[in-house]
């Protein structure tokens, strides 16, 4: 009798890598970063340890982000990162008898999907399939996507924002925009450069975003983030204070772009499914869902009820549990 295949679910995010293994739960939830020894090509660190090296490396160490805008930009680094993750779980040794699900943004090309599939095959996993992040994220948010009632999801990740409508176990329509968490960081860098004459790194921008980002109209108290960088004029280290109001001015046009994508999806949604969305509202997940005021912003702009999922950062990888069980098949799930 053949042994049961081991299920592995991977949320291969631009910012964070999450890996779920049946029987072990989520075994990895850390930044998608890997550090190499330049001479030996050996992996020095991965995840959080490698992330702490960004911007501080020297000529003997190379720190790499294997993904950019939701797709693999460095296959060798991506393979090394996954190998690093799996080596940390001692009881996972035989990848040949495993089923691997990799989640990707909704509008990646077939070539990009094949690159993701090749990544798992190079790890020794033969049975690999790809699913869209919004599908897994909806399941992870507690939505029964296999029912005839439609659900709409806005997934604001690190590299991409995906907006889609799901019904009867699959994505009816979706759109993706490469405006998300990393894009916000870059806009903060540009703003600080222009308005404060200070050059800062992405990690500093991300910390400011996490600390003071908001879309709330009536904030009780303006918050301040202290950012350190290099003075554009003197070339010396300097700090500035950036307020939540300043970050809000950066966020508003970005979230307007995301809202425009949501408009497009709603305009293309069939009438019966649109009626369901009026009743069921919109689910928001991904790291961007953690910004205060996101719920109120989308409700104001779209005139629909909005719910932030309870687990925005892990919804996608948690949703892989169900998809692994039936390999994404509507019929297999519907018969359960």
Number of strands: 18
CATH 4th-level superfamily of the largest domain: ATPase, nucleotide binding domain
Distance between the termini: 23 Å
Q: Outline, from the CA principal axes?
A: flat
- In what order do the strands lie side by side in the largest sheet? 3-2-1-9-10
User: Which radius of gyration do the C-alpha atoms yield?
Assistant: 21 Å
Second CATH tier, the architecture of the largest domain? 2-Layer Sandwich
Helicity, as a percent range: 25-40%
Per the CATH scheme, the topology name of the largest domain is Nucleotidyltransferase, domain 5
- Low-confidence spans: pLDDT under 50, at least 5 residues? none
Mean pLDDT: 88
Largest sheet: 5 strands, mixed
User: How many distinct folded domains?
Assistant: 3
Helical element count? 11
Describe this structure in words.
There is one protein chain. This protein is of the alpha+beta class and 336 residues long. It folds into three domains: 6-136 and 316-335, Nucleotidyltransferase, domain 5, CATH 3.30.420; 145-179 and 251-309, 2-Layer Sandwich (Nucleotidyltransferase, domain 5); 181-249, ATPase, substrate binding domain, subdomain 4 (Actin, Chain A, domain 4, Alpha-Beta Complex). It contains eleven helices and 18 strands. The chain has helices at 48-51, 75-87, 110-122, 133-140, 181-196, 202-212, 244-268, 271-280, 294-302, 315-326, 330-335; strands at residues 6-12, 16-21, 25-31, 34-37, 43-46, 61-64, 67-68, 71-72, 98-104, 127-132, 151-156, 161-167, 170-177, 198-199, 224-231, 237-243, 282-285, 306-308. The strands form five sheets. The chain has a five-stranded mixed beta sheet with strand order 3-2-1-9-10, with helices on both faces. Strand 15 and strand 16 form a beta hairpin. Helix 5 (181-196) crosses helix 6. The chain is flat, with a radius of gyration of 21 Å. The protein starts with 5 loop residues before the first strand and ends with a helix. 44% of the residues are buried. The mean pLDDT is 88. Forms polymers. It holds the Pfam family MreB_Mbl.
């Amino acid at each position: 009798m053949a042994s049961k295949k081991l299920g592995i679910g991977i949320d291969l995010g631009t910012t964070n890598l999450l890996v779920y293994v049946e029987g072990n739960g989520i075994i990895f939830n850390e930044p998608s970063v890997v550090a190499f020894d330049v001479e030996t090509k050996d992996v020095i660190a991965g995840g959080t340890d490698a992330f702490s090296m960004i911007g501080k490396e020297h000529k003997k160490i190379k720190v790499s982000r294997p993904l950019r805008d939701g797709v693999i930009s460095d296959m060798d680094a991506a393979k090394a990162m996954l190998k690093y993750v799996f080596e940390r779980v001692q009881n996972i040794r035989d990848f040949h008898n495993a089923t691997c699900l990799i989640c990707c943004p909704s509008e990646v090309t077939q070539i990009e999907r094949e690159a993701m599939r090749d990544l798992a095959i190079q790890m020794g996993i033969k049975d690999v399939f790809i699913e869209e992040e919004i599908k897994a994220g909806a399941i992870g948010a507690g939505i029964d996507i296999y029912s005839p009632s439609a659900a709409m999801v806005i997934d604001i990740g690190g590299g991409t924002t995906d907006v889609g409508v799901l019904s009867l176990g699959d994505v009816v329509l979706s759109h993706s925009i490469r405006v998300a968490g990393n894009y916000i960081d870059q806009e903060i860098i540009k703003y600080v450069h222009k308005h404060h004459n200070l050059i800062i790194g992405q990690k500093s921008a991300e910390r400011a975003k996490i600390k003071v980002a908001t879309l709330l109209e009536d904030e009780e108290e303006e918050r301040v983030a202290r950012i350190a960088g290099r003075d554009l004029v003197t070339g010396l280290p300097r700090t500035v204070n950036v307020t939540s109001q300043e970050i809000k001015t950066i966020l508003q046009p970005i979230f307007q772009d995301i809202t425009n994508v949501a408009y497009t999806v709603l305009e293309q949604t069939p009438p019966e499914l649109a009626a369901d969305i009026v009743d069921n509202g919109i689910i928001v997940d991904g790291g961007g869902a953690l910004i205060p005021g996101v719920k109120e912003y989308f409700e104001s702009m779209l005139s629909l009820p909005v719910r932030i999922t309870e687990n925005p950062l892990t919804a996608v990888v948690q949703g892989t549990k169900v998809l692994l069980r039936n390999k994404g098949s509507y019929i297999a799930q519907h018969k359960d």
